[in-house]
Amino acid sequence: MLALRQQPPKRSSRAAAAGRIREVEAELDAKKQVAADLRDKVEKFTKQVDDSKAARIKLLEEVEKLKKTLEETDALLGGNETMMYGLGIAQNKNDEHFWVQNTQTISSASCTLQPGTSGKP
């Protein structure tokens, strides 16, 4: 005789499949949420990088303006050293930078004012 195999009822296999489908859909939704969160973080960090780059460029432009002003001041004064007041940085003609404790220190090169001049450029 042939042995008959018992197959589970179709309803229970459909119910099991439907349950598994719900589990997989829930996992998919969770992974989609994680992906969306990661996209948001990437956008946030990209914006921060762009903002940092813009700030860096602005600071570099300001430094270049200060250097130009320092060179112009040095040319007007004709001295060996000039001072960038408020920054505490002195620069000599050899382009050596050093930290100055007193931002109002003036180099040994003296400035002589001509009668009737204010000393302002």
UniProtKB/TrEMBL annotation:
<protein>
    <submittedName>
        <fullName>Uncharacterized protein</fullName>
    </submittedName>
</protein>
<keyword id="KW-0175">Coiled coil</keyword>
<feature type="coiled-coil region">
    <location>
        <begin position="21"/>
        <end position="76"/>
    </location>
</feature>
